[in-house]
Amino acid sequence: MKKQASSLHRKRKRTRNSLLMESLLYTGDKNTDTRIRLIQYEANGYSSSDITDIKKLHGALKGSSIYWITVSGMSNPEKIEQLGNLLGLHRLDIQDILTAQHISKIEIYEDKTLLLVNTFFYNGKELQQEHLGIVLGQDFVVSFQESSQPLFENVLKAIEANTTKVRNRSVDFLFGLLCNNILSNYIETVAQLEEDLDNLEEELSTGNPSDDFLIRLQQKRHDYLQMRKSITPLKENFNKLTFNDNSLMKEENLIYLNDLRDRLNFIVQSLEICHETMKSLMELYVSSNDMKMNEIMKRLTAVTTLFIPLTFVVGVWGMNFQFMPELGWKYGYLAAWIVMLLIAVAVGWYIKKRKWF
């Protein structure tokens, strides 16, 4: 129970990049080595290679191909900064990419679009969070992630197999596929949260929840707040992708963005349902505890009511007066017991008749 309670307050490192810092820092807590991979494709071909020297990447980004640069791991901020400078990213944008606690946002520039977002997935019972950055250029997409998790593995397989002729499409379609992957991940994670809340509701309906019920409910509330903190700003910024002046999003692909916006709205609605469910569970849990306490108080009151007249009888016969008429009676003790038993039966019958117990 203590381990669960302590996990509620687990926090990321609070290191911050500053405009006055000469070198940028990665502020997350994942120690994955930085690996840069270049995926180059066109209608008739596909190739993939690891990039160890950023300078060589400049010469590779030429021709009519579409380029997808994947960056896994941010433990080497110097390499991230070097890549960002090569792509013409502003220093503030590179700083935001390296800031794991950054709020989700979309920035539109004349020749680029930057998406910063957090993705989520459950590792067993624990919610994991990962910071992502995606940059869309004229003929390239760059994806940054904190770990080496295969978050976009299905997109890579689609390019390799040219599924639905994905290699014949423009670079903004690749950007849309990556966004779709992120939203699909949201849907799966929110669905898992809903399922966990349903299990808690079912447990509570039995009338006998486990001792750590409240801790588990609080953990789910913590998960909900984490997701809402990232997803709500993304919903507010998403229209920037469809209404912008840099012409990176082709008109024929806007229909896919509209579909993504609908999915995002569905995710936000699902989160709101989770919020209402958690509120109801908390209220039901408190009400259930109050009902249990009332039952206990009723039983204690009934017992007390039974013993009050008996205490009176014992108190009267327990007085130490010299001349009491019953003191010399041979059957006085037995008579006292009979009187007390009759009183107890009468009081119990009266309580039962009145349905007080």
TrEMBL record:
Keywords: Cell membrane, Ion transport, Magnesium, Membrane, Transmembrane, Transmembrane helix, Transport
Reaction(s) the record says it catalyses: Mg(2+)(in) = Mg(2+)(out)
Designated name of the protein: Magnesium transport protein CorA
Keyword Electron transport applies: no
NCBIfam families referenced in this protein's UniProt entry, alphabetically: corA
Superkingdom to which the source organism belongs: Bacteria
Pfam families registered for this protein in UniProt: CorA (PF01544)
PANTHER family: CORA FAMILY METAL ION TRANSPORTER (EUROFUNG)
Localization: Cell membrane; Membrane
Organism: Candidatus Gallibacteroides avistercoris
Lineage of the species this protein comes from: Bacteria, Pseudomonadati, Bacteroidota, Bacteroidia, Bacteroidales
One GO cellular component, as annotated: plasma membrane
Protein's gene: corA
Chain's role: Mediates influx of magnesium ions. Alternates between open and closed states. Activated by low cytoplasmic Mg(2+) levels. Inactive when cytoplasmic Mg(2+) levels are high.
Family that this chain belongs to: Belongs to the CorA metal ion transporter (MIT) (TC 1.A.35) family.
InterPro entries: CorA_cytoplasmic_dom, CorA_TM1_TM2, Mg/Co-transport_prot_CorA, MgTranspt_CorA/ZnTranspt_ZntB
Gene Ontology terms for molecular function: cobalt ion binding; cobalt ion transmembrane transporter activity; magnesium ion binding; magnesium ion transmembrane transporter activity
Keyword Transmembrane helix: yes
Gene3D superfamilies assigned: CorA soluble domain-like, Magnesium transport protein CorA, transmembrane region
Entry's transmembrane regions: 300-319, 331-351
Membrane topology term: Multi-pass membrane protein
Xref: CDD domains: TmCorA-like_1 (cd12828)
